[in-house]
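Summarise what follows for lecture notes:
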Amino acid sequence: MANEQDPTQTATVDYDRPPYVTERLRYFNGEFLSTQDFVDEQGYHIDRQVRHEAQLHVFGILEGLRIAETGDLKGLTISSGSALDDQGNQILFDGGETPFELSVTSFGSGATLLLQALFSEPEDPASSDQTGAATRFSQRPAETFSLAATLAEHAVLLATVKLDGNGSIESISTAGVKYAGLALPGPDGQPVVSLRRGLDENGQADPQLDGSLSITGTLSFGSTNRQMLNLWGSGHGIGVQNDTTYFRSNTDFAWFKGGTHANGTFDPGAGGTARMVIDDGGNLGLGTTTPSARLELKSGGNSASTNALRVTNSGGTSLLQVRDDGNVGIGATTPGARLQVRSSDNAHTTAALVVTRQDETAALTVYSDGSLQMPLDGSSLSFGSHTRQMLNLYGSNYGVGVQSNTSYFRSANNFAWFKGGTHASNQFDPGSGGTAQMVIDSSGNLGLGTTAPGARLELKAANASQSALKVTSSGGKSLLEVKGSASSFLFSVSSGDVATLEFTSNADFRITNTSRGSGGRALVHDSNNVLTINYANDFSGGVKINGPLTVNGLTVNNGLTVTGPVSALGAWSQPAGSLFTVSSSTDRSDIKGPMTSDGFLIVALHCTGDGESARGFVEAFTDANSTPTTRRGRIANHYRENQNTVIQDSTMTIPVRKGDYWKVYTKCTQHKITVDVFWIPLGH
């Protein structure tokens, strides 16, 4: 304050400002002002200025202060400009046409340096009075700008400089550099909301708002295109480009109802609900925050009456809906299956489902009455490569199926193959204009040309002049042909169409050979003997056996000559009669052979009580093995004492070929049985 008592009194001047300047000079006439009074007057205004700057602004570059490297990459140049530090001090540099230059040669190779501006206002020794005291405080660039590894307190960052291995400037980055701006202070003096211009590699960027902002009126962005509301940098926010309003996120999107702001991914906060999300992969989820497909809809309920998806037309009619139980309805409001398509009517001509090719040509059509059409050439219906696949018609008792190595047709009664005609309902009815080509009736009888086969196989010729059966060789030669006519059935077996076997309408049997003219012959032969039966024009009547006929010693040659014993059974080659008798309660096997002639084995089984019941059976085997395994017959008896109605005696006769073995196996299962075995030889 001014010294009003003694204007000549001198005192030490205090240039330091207190934290709060609460006084200012009061001027009056005749007042004597000292040096301290003028210092205090400046201090008052400087305090108000820096307090305004510190509390209503944020630090950073105000203008200018552009950075560039020198031509030899060994130094930096700083252009004129100004900045504001976090204490409210203005940092100014007026370099005129000559930028200030800083050398980097004193720093090691590969160093990363921070170029900074620090408010400094020392006394200027270049200006002094007659006593040698400085008359100015001056901001000089040598004290204002510096390079260091760390940022000094209250300094303003201008650039980050990286040196290469030779100690030259490799790069200059403005990352982290800030422009000054406006601030709204909080209770502790720190800004709760700040607005400043950003800074990118080009030296400028859009303004940035830090802190929370509440707007009770209208926030307008004007009518300029490419307007952005950036949140957490430029990677998140809302924007407008030509005819498009867009939302931008580096990863995920979410729509929350209620709740409080939280920080976790897809966390709607306490009391909130995530209504819709789009995850980092582009999957959209409604009702779920973890969509596993491009679109996943999670139903809001858990009953068949709740839909996860519903599409309606302008009139409110359901076009498509997916229920909570997984059933999908197209046109159906209560789908009763995983997929139900409801047609607009019941007509055969109305398509309920159409699958088309890329060129919109229909490849598969399902009509309202259930008819299926696949009209394109090469269309196929494939069931994959697994067995036990069924195509059921009229329930599971009719249809086509596959089991291991077998394709089969199934019918509860009959099978039929129809040519032409229309679908009909009656059994074996090929429909109007149709023909039954083949049928298999419920008994398993196969009919060709008839729908009522009377045998396991019945072939009906198309007419009297055509064949009912024809078998040809691989070369097309007729091997067997059955022809039908009004007078006869002709069986022909040929290797050049020369021989026929005929049953006439008079029940006559005739064998003819075209090489014999109107006659014929039958040849039955092996490698040693020939039997020839001639008839018709070969000789007059009778039957001629051309060649010797021997029946166990009986030879007929040009008459009847008997040269040996004659018997209806031929000559015995083995003794006839009983071979053995078994009367025992134990099992037994008897084997004989090889037999020197044909014959018959007669086995008799007798179950006698002897005071008790008896039961057993006998099996006979015969073949070329020394221990025969081919069973030819089996008899079994069971006798109960005093009950003669139960079988007591049984016999069986088994033919045995010359050279074969025979075996009789006796099995007694209760008490004792008796078995008699007899041998009757035949021929030699």
